[in-house]
Amino acid sequence: xAENKMEQVAQMFGxxxxxxxxxxxxxxxxxxxxxxxxxxxxxxxxxxRNNGNWLxxxxxxxxxxxxxxxNG
Length: 72
Prior knowledge:
Layout: H1 6-12, E1 21-25, E2 28-35, E3 38-42, E4 48-50, H2 52-60, E5 64-66
């Protein structure tokens, strides 16, 4: 089996696996985290769901990780 690269992907963005952060795309700000399974987005119910589309957007520059002043 090939090596899982998600830890390296998280490091490319200055993050660690399972570290919460915010990302913005198309004027939407979402709470996210990198996991060994990919990029997860926090849903309205508080649970996280894998979202390959957002991962692709981060990797292509369509989305970016942001630091929110309110930390919330």
